[in-house]
């Protein structure tokens, strides 16, 4: 099994999410930029050795065949659009994802700047979102986000493709992103006990509700999946708050999830948007709207250093 990219890190104060499409004829430059990314991380890190800086690159389904020869990740497909009775999860363009994490916003910016410089006019940027830590790892809706993420060996098992499932791509991970825009005037007008019902946890102390109390349409009731054949159905989320302070600009949550198969995230999304049972959509969605949705595969470091021509 190859070496996975730096997905499992401590939560950093800054993140940058860049999604680009590859222009016709830009494939060679993009391949070079992908192989050169690790060197750029080293270059920028060496100027601030006391700080953390890492970057993960993901490749979308259509782009995969344009960039590489040989086999493709077994489960790589475009993001599955979901149209529920009330809310929709759109599938939007995106060939390459760059996910930068740092404890300094300037390092994240510098790495992003150098990498987009290397890409030059080979790509078109379709979404650029700068995320920041908000108090004690809270989303802008005021709830702590990430608590139930698996940790340690459980996290590794949750995100790495198994040798048995896909020997050519073992050690890589699937990664799904969605940018959500939240209506804060409406959310903040909701009394805190109702907000807590929407999430399924208490707001201040972040305590999970017991099963008898937790509403069926709460976010955590719909995203906590039962084991399948004794195996946990978990993802590792690295969501970040982002946005403009003025009323006019978008603000909300950048959702990003790593997993050993895209199916687990897809089941969670179906539960949220279609409902489980059908019609019981996630209450959170009444206040926050998905405006992007893209599926990628994050190959191993070895693959990125020397991709097949
Ligand atoms: C849990 C926020 C989107 C999957 C949570 C929690 C919060 C939260 C506050 C509770 C604490 C925690 O365990 O992290 C949000 C916000 C979102 C969002 C603000 C977007 C606006 C999503 C999406 C998915 C997802 C799209 C999956 C496709 C999960 C999972 C849990 C969780 C698996 C843990 C459930 C459990 O085991 O209790 N989220 N989330 N979230 N969320 Fe989200």
TrEMBL record:
Which GO molecular function annotation, any one, does this entry have?
A: heme binding
Q: Which PROSITE patterns match?
A: DYP_PEROXIDASE
Q: Where is the Dyp-type peroxidase C-terminal domain?
A: 138-302
Keywords assigned: Iron, Metal-binding, Oxidoreductase, Peroxidase
InterPro entries according to UniProt: Dimeric_a/b-barrel, Dyp_perox_C, Dyp_perox_N, Dyp_peroxidase
- Pfam families for the chain: Dyp_perox_C, Dyp_perox_N
Provide the Gene Ontology terms for cellular component.
Answer: cytosol
Q: Which cofactor does it need?
A: heme b
> Key word Glycoprotein present in the record?
no
Indicate the segments forming the Dyp-type peroxidase N-terminal domain, all copies.
5-133
UniProt KW Oxidoreductase keyword: yes
The entry sums up its family as follows: Belongs to the DyP-type peroxidase family.
Q: What is this protein called?
A: Peroxidase
């Amino acid at each position: 099994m190859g070496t996975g990219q730096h997905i499992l890190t401590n939560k950093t104060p800054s993140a940058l999410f860049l999604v680009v499409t590859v222009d016709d004829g830009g494939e060679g430059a993009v391949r070079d930029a992908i192989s050169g990314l690790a060197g750029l991380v080293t270059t920028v890190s060496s100027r601030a050795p006391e700080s953390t800086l890492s970057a993960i690159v993901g490749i979308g389904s259509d782009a995969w065949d344009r960039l590489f020869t040989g086999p493709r990740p077994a489960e790589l497909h475009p993001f599955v659009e979901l149209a529920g009775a009330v809310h929709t999860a759109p599938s939007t363009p995106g060939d390459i994802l760059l996910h930068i994490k740092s404890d300094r916003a300037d390092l994240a910016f510098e790495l992003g700047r150098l990498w987009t410089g290397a890409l030059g006019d080979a790509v078109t940027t379709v979404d650029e979102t700068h995320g920041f830590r908000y108090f004690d790892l809270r989303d802008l809706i005021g709830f702590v986000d990430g608590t139930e993420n698996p940790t340690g060996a459980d996290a590794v098992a949750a995100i790495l493709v198994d040798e048995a499932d896909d020997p050519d791509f073992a050690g890589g991970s699937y990664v799904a992103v969605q940018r959500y825009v939240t209506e804060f005037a409406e959310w903040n007008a909701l009394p805190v006990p109702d907000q807590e019902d929407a999430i399924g946890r208490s707001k201040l102390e972040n305590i999970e509700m017991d099963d008898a109390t937790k509403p069926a349409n709460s976010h955590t009731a719909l995203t906590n999946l039962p084991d399948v054949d004794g195996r946990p159905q978990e993802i590792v989320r690295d969501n970040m708050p982002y946005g403009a302070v003025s009323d006019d600009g978008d603000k909300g949550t950048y959702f990003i999830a790593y997993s050993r198969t895209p199916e687990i995230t897809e089941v969670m999304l179906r539960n949220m948007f279609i409902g489980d049972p059908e019609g019981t959509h996630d209450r959170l969605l009444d206040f926050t709207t998905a405006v992007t949705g893209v599926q990628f595969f994050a190959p191993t470091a070895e693959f990125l250093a020397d991709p097949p021509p």
